[in-house]
Write a structure and sequence with these properties.
CATH superfamily of the largest domain: DNA Cyclobutane Dipyrimidine Photolyase, subunit A, domain 3
Number of strands: 7
Helix content: 40-55%
Radius of gyration: 23 Å
Distance between the termini: 60 Å
Number of domains: 3
Strand order of the largest sheet: 3-2-1-4-5
Bound molecules: iron/sulfur cluster
Structural class: mainly alpha
Oligomer: single chain
Number of helices: 21
């Protein structure tokens, strides 16, 4: 009999290694690797989510009649060896994993792989699309996905008369005091308690509180809630940030997609159906579907296309260790403390907090890109190498020198002020670049442009900003203030 090895981010009966299998022709292997669990200082809610979801999926397969060999082992290799010794399978089969290193490891361990079906565009297909292109423009890929998959298409034309409604989705935060739908939570049970009890001491962050679904059934309930309550208001303020609003109308579905609890087609089908029924406006439906079939699949494709070289890129030569505030959460910068509070409490921050606040600060201060990747990978419930390398190295830190983004996502305090309500209560002033009240983002923005001048010169998308930097009369004072800010950040005093 064959063994199907189900990895911890493939928790679905639809995975290609399992979809045609029956209890009569396959036994299941699942391995909790202590080496993997101890490999980073993970957020408690992330570890709880993955381990609990694995155990619930194992129970589901047992209920369906499968024999499940669920092992807690020192490593994947040790768990597989022990399984082979006990069961002597004809073959061990796994669906292609999510990470490059795991694919190599499966090969070394003699595991047969089946083609991944967890994405709508397999990475080999993506490589075919990318072949011969000078630039891999996400929008071009997205339109191809729309045409191929048929989402939001009226014949050959895009529904609503446009491919992209992003311009409608960049509204600043609303000033009407509106409230956003509360995320759905699940009651914790005995299994949750058992997993929480055994979490390693190294894990950080709040205890799991039921906000993250740990079964497919609960993930499907979250999807229904999103379509009914969140999507109708999702779009216009998706790039805005508000104090005390950690989820703010974001769908919070990424962990389920990344663990296989939900498949991308069923999520997009649900959004399309709601749009067609007139329950969700086109800008919201399009923005949401673009995130799934566009950005998410683009990130997945670029990860495989550029690995393994991509994980070491550092084109700006950034060499600052990750400032202590990322792990302590303690800072006078209101925008940063709000984003880090969300991370600490929920293992999550929405995409604009990740990019405009946490990533932007790492970019402006010159944090070693790989240290930022490690921190984000370990700290977020939806973290994974394939997610973090393109998003952090490419989009956030410009460490690939423009392979992914056409210019660094660098922003001063004014932009954060426009898109949030943080600055009013902050110790600093977003418009000031020098002096003790100067916003660290604003000071560091100008300092960043000057520090990286030789690399950024020639980037026509930055020409206006670079020439504005040239015209600054107080650049010497900016430099002094930047040095002071960086020293205080290094010392954990800001
Ligand atoms: Fe952040 Fe600067 Fe605004 Fe303070 S003033 S919240 S540090 S952008």
């Amino acid at each position: 009999m064959d063994t199907v090895w189900v990895l911890g981010d493939q928790l679905n009966r639809r995975i290609s290694s399992l979809e045609d299998r029956t209890p009569d022709d396959a036994r299941i292997l699942m391995i909790e690797s202590a080496a993997k669990i101890g490999s980073k200082r993970y957020h408690r809610q992330r570890l709880h989510l993955v381990i609990t979801a694995m155990r619930r999926f194992a129970a589901e397969l047992e209920d369906a009649g499968f024999e499940v060999d669920y092992r807690e082992a020192p490593s994947f290799a040790a768990g597989l060896d022990a399984h082979r010794a006990d069961h002597n399978p004809d073959d061990v089969i796994a669906m292609e994993p999510m990470s490059y290193s795991m694919l190599e490891r499966l090969g070394d361990l003699g595991v047969t792989t089946t083609r991944s079906n967890q994405f709508l565009c397999h990475y080999e297909e993506f490589a075919g699309w990318a072949d011969g292109r000078n630039r891999l423009v996400m929008e071009d890929f997205y339109r191809r996905q729309r045409e191929k998959l048929g989402y939001l298409m009226d014949g050959d034309e895009p529904a609503g008369g446009a491919w992209n409604f992003d311009k409608d989705n960049r509204e600043p935060p609303p000033k009407d005091g509106r409230s956003w739908p509360e995320p759905v939570t699940s009651r914790l049970d005995e299994l949750d308690a058992e997993v929480i009890e055994a979490l390693p001491d190294s894990a950080f962050g709040w205890e799991p509180d039921g906000v993250w679904a740990t079964s497919r059934r609960a993930a499907l309930a979250r999807l229904r809630h999103v379509v009914d309550e969140v999507l109708p208001i999702f779009g216009p303020h998706e790039d805005a940030m508000l104090s005390g609003e950690w989820s703010m109308g974001h769908t919070l579905l990424s962990p389920y997609l990344n663990l296989g609890l939900l498949y991308p087609d069923e999520v997009c089908d649900a959004a399309e159906e709601a749009y067609r029924a007139g329950r969700v406006p086109i800008a919201s439906a399009e923005g949401f579907i673009r995130q799934i079939i566009g950005w998410r699949e683009y990130v997945w494709g670029t990860y495989w296309l550029w690995m393994p070289e991509y994980r070491t890129v550092n084109q700006l030569g950034a060499d600052r260790p990750l400032p202590p505030l990322y792990t302590s959460g303690s800072t006078d910068m209101r925008c940063v403390s709000e984003a880090l509070r969300a991370v600490h409490e929920h293992g999550y921050a929405h995409h604009i907090q990740r990019l405009m606040v946490l990533g932007n600060l790492a970019l402006l201060t010159g944090v070693v890109p790989q240290q930022m990747v490690e921190w984000m990978w370990a700290s977020f419930v939806d973290g994974a190498e394939w997610v973090m390398l393109p998003n952090v190295l490419g989009m956030g830190l410009y460490a690939d020198g423009g392979q992914m983004a056409t210019k660094p996502y660098a922003a001063g305090g004014n932009y954060i002020n426009k898109m949030s309500d943080y600055c009013g209560d902050c110790a600093f002033h977003p418009k000031k670049r020098v002096g003790s009240e100067a916003c660290p983002f604003t000071t560091l923005y100008w300092d960043f442009l000057e520090r990286n001048r030789s690399t950024l010169d020639g980037n026509h998308r930055l020409a206006r900003q670079l020439s504005a930097a040239d015209r600054l009369q107080d650049m010497g004072d900016v430099r002094d203030r930047a040095a002071e800010v960086l020293e205080r950040l290094d010392g954990g005093e800001l």
